[in-house]
Amino acid sequence: MIGIPYYLFEGVMIHLNEGVPSALLNITIDVLNQLNLPGSLVFADRLENIPGGDEALGIEELQRNRWTLKDWCLKPGLARHMGSTDLMSRTEIIL
User: What pTM was estimated for this model as a whole?
Assistant: First the structure.
Protein backbone atom coordinates (compact mmCIF):
# COMPACT_ATOMS: atom_id res chain seq x y z
CA MET A 1 0.00 0.00 0.00
CA ILE A 2 1.30 3.43 -0.92
CA GLY A 3 1.13 6.11 1.78
CA ILE A 4 -0.10 9.66 1.42
CA PRO A 5 2.63 11.94 0.05
CA TYR A 6 3.81 14.87 2.14
CA TYR A 7 4.76 18.19 0.58
CA LEU A 8 7.16 20.45 2.46
CA PHE A 9 7.28 24.25 2.50
CA GLU A 10 10.28 25.37 4.51
CA GLY A 11 11.22 29.03 4.57
CA VAL A 12 9.59 29.70 1.19
CA MET A 13 6.62 31.93 2.01
CA ILE A 14 8.67 34.39 4.08
CA HIS A 15 10.35 35.55 0.85
CA LEU A 16 7.21 35.97 -1.27
CA ASN A 17 5.25 39.15 -1.96
CA GLU A 18 1.90 39.77 -0.31
CA GLY A 19 -0.83 37.49 -1.65
CA VAL A 20 1.58 34.96 -3.15
CA PRO A 21 1.79 32.62 -0.11
CA SER A 22 -1.98 32.14 -0.11
CA ALA A 23 -1.95 31.65 -3.87
CA LEU A 24 0.78 29.02 -3.46
CA LEU A 25 -1.35 27.08 -0.97
CA ASN A 26 -4.31 27.24 -3.38
CA ILE A 27 -2.28 26.25 -6.45
CA THR A 28 -0.96 23.23 -4.58
CA ILE A 29 -4.53 22.12 -3.80
CA ASP A 30 -5.65 22.77 -7.38
CA VAL A 31 -2.87 20.64 -8.85
CA LEU A 32 -3.47 17.77 -6.42
CA ASN A 33 -7.22 17.87 -7.12
CA GLN A 34 -6.72 18.01 -10.90
CA LEU A 35 -4.44 14.99 -10.73
CA ASN A 36 -6.75 13.28 -8.24
CA LEU A 37 -3.86 12.88 -5.79
CA PRO A 38 -3.98 12.82 -2.01
CA GLY A 39 -1.55 14.88 -0.01
CA SER A 40 -0.55 16.49 3.22
CA LEU A 41 1.45 19.64 3.71
CA VAL A 42 4.18 20.04 6.31
CA PHE A 43 5.47 23.56 6.82
CA ALA A 44 8.12 25.47 8.72
CA ASP A 45 7.47 28.90 7.36
CA ARG A 46 5.55 32.08 8.05
CA LEU A 47 1.93 31.85 6.97
CA GLU A 48 0.31 34.95 5.58
CA ASN A 49 -2.21 36.94 7.67
CA ILE A 50 -0.87 35.64 11.01
CA PRO A 51 1.23 38.38 12.60
CA GLY A 52 2.17 36.31 15.65
CA GLY A 53 1.60 32.71 16.50
CA ASP A 54 -2.15 32.60 17.06
CA GLU A 55 -3.27 29.04 16.27
CA ALA A 56 -6.88 30.16 15.66
CA LEU A 57 -5.66 32.56 12.95
CA GLY A 58 -3.55 29.74 11.52
CA ILE A 59 -6.62 27.50 11.30
CA GLU A 60 -8.60 30.27 9.57
CA GLU A 61 -5.81 31.01 7.07
CA LEU A 62 -5.37 27.36 6.17
CA GLN A 63 -9.14 26.76 5.88
CA ARG A 64 -9.43 29.76 3.54
CA ASN A 65 -6.82 28.00 1.42
CA ARG A 66 -8.56 24.59 1.65
CA TRP A 67 -6.23 22.86 4.12
CA THR A 68 -7.20 21.26 7.45
CA LEU A 69 -4.69 21.94 10.22
CA LYS A 70 -3.59 18.82 12.09
CA ASP A 71 -0.62 20.04 14.17
CA TRP A 72 0.59 23.54 15.10
CA CYS A 73 3.82 24.62 16.75
CA LEU A 74 5.77 27.86 17.04
CA LYS A 75 9.49 28.47 16.95
CA PRO A 76 11.65 31.59 17.12
CA GLY A 77 12.77 33.29 13.94
CA LEU A 78 11.22 34.39 10.66
CA ALA A 79 9.84 30.98 9.69
CA ARG A 80 7.98 30.78 13.00
CA HIS A 81 4.92 28.73 12.05
CA MET A 82 5.29 24.97 11.93
CA GLY A 83 2.60 22.41 11.37
CA SER A 84 1.02 19.73 9.30
CA THR A 85 -2.19 19.77 7.29
CA ASP A 86 -4.37 17.56 5.16
CA LEU A 87 -6.31 18.41 2.04
CA MET A 88 -9.86 19.46 2.87
CA SER A 89 -12.44 17.06 1.55
CA ARG A 90 -14.92 18.60 -0.84
CA THR A 91 -17.60 18.44 1.89
CA GLU A 92 -15.36 20.38 4.33
CA ILE A 93 -14.72 23.32 2.00
CA ILE A 94 -16.26 26.50 3.36
CA LEU A 95 -17.83 28.52 0.60
Answer: 0.83
